[in-house]
Amino acid sequence: MTNQPHPPTSHPPTPHPPTPLPAAPDLFTWEFATNPYPAYAWLREHAPVHRTRLPSGVEAWLVTRYADAKQTLADNRLSKNPAHHDEPAHAKGKTGIPGERKAELMTHLLNIDPPDHTRLRRLVSKAFTPRRVAEFAPRVRELTDRLIDGFAQQGSADLIHEFAFPLPIYAICDLLGVPREDQDDFRDWAGMMIRHQGGPRGGVARSVKKMRGYLADLIHRKREALPDTPHPGEDLISGLIRASDHGEHLTENEAAAMAFILLFAGFETTVNLIGNGTYALLTHPEQRTRLQTSLAAHDTALLETGVEELLRYDGPVELATWRFATERLTIGGQDIAPGDPVLVVLAAADRDPERFADPDVLDLGRRDNQHLGYGHGIHYCLGAPLARLEGQTALASLLTRLPDLQLAVDPAELRWRGGLIMRGLRTLPVEFTPVG
Question: What is the CA 2 to chain-centroid distance, rounded?
Fold first, then answer.
């Protein structure tokens, strides 16, 4: 027999290993704080519901896509009550507002669920009405002008410390009914809270405790002196004391907690809205000129849409406050275990290209701008109308009274405050032609 050659042995093609994902970006570094948006874009694309270890050591899920974020904010299987956390970390102050537990200030709208949330929000809404906010507009304009008068002749200012910070503090103190002679104490306490990573150890908790003691005493004094019928322009604490729902009043603990959270949530968000918004306008000169031209023509339409766009583009609240799964659920295809903390990244959702055309472009005239800057669902920010009023008044006054306002430093020199929930500048040095 003739030997026949063996047919060549065929080998299956060597499979190429899957291309590995690029490494997840570092989160919560100083570089990240300066510009978190590229990292958030990576998460939206590659890990839209991402488990990470926070600087405090707590592990939590970050939700970054708009559709998932909106669903999560309205999901009643996610509780606001830290008691649902599967770790005792909340008892050590690692979640929520520093110092609020020790100061017995936990029973506010950010920490409770229905039916208690429904009852308290209905009571507070009676005191915090759109009409009350509208009546407050002249006082906001007066405060704004007084603060600008304080530095207009200098030709330079730090807009955070001399303007964006004191404006909402004094405004919310006036609205709550804190006597003028006590408002500088509130400014000091609030300054410690906003400076939480740059102040003395334990300073935030001490400031919260002092604020709690003062509010309890003020509420007691106002309750004792409350007339039988409300008078026009009655302050918010008196309104909280007077508010009732089917005969049920706020307890003094509840009233103190509500006054505290209205002050806490009502000042830092507005500081950041004014600071971030002014910075965005100064670094986008064509949009700033567009707004100044509109204001010069006494047209406020662009101011109104512009503040909404500034809230979307680089808003004051980076992450929504804590939520905890009460049962197993799925968000964006990711299983979430009972007790797991969930943080909705509003800053990422509001730059989602699936929801917003050209999301990284600042467009003050943007329409259909249903951003999540003030949340969504039953926990939508109660103070949003006041923050909008303050933001619109502050920006309009700055651009009108100081028309050549400009940054006094290179943007790379600016530093952003550390922290998990809020996003804001430490300082904002500006210069302008002095005005008498």
Answer: 87
Q: Which has the closest alpha carbon to 201: 55, 99, 91?
A: 99
The three-class DSSP label of residue 425 is strand
Model confidence at 98: pLDDT above 60: no
Token readout for 266 is 């009502």
Cβ atoms within 10 Å, residue 253: 15
**pLDDT tens digits along 364-391:** 999 999 999 999 988 888 888 889 999 9
Q: Which residues contact 297 (CB under 8 A, 6 or more apart)?
A: none
Distance CA 288, CA 280 (A): 9
Sequence letter at residue 320: A
List of E strands, 83-219 = 156-158
Over the stretch 25-37, which tens digit does the pLDDT of each residue have? 889 898 999 999 9
Q: How many angstroms separate the Cα of 340 from the Cα of each of 76, 162, 230, 328, 369?
A: 14, 41, 45, 9, 31
Say how many residues make up the chain.
436
C-alpha distances (whole Å) from 421 to each of 112, 249, 306, 431 are: 18, 31, 23, 30
Distance CA 222, CA 242 (A): 10
Cα atoms in the Cβ-side hemisphere of radius 13 Å centred on 387: 29
Nearest to 136 by CA among 308, 390, 401, 382: 390
**Which amino acid appears at position 74 of this protein?**
A
Nearest CA to 48 among 31, 66, 70?
A: 66
Count other C-beta atoms under 10 Å from residue 300's C-beta. Answer: 13
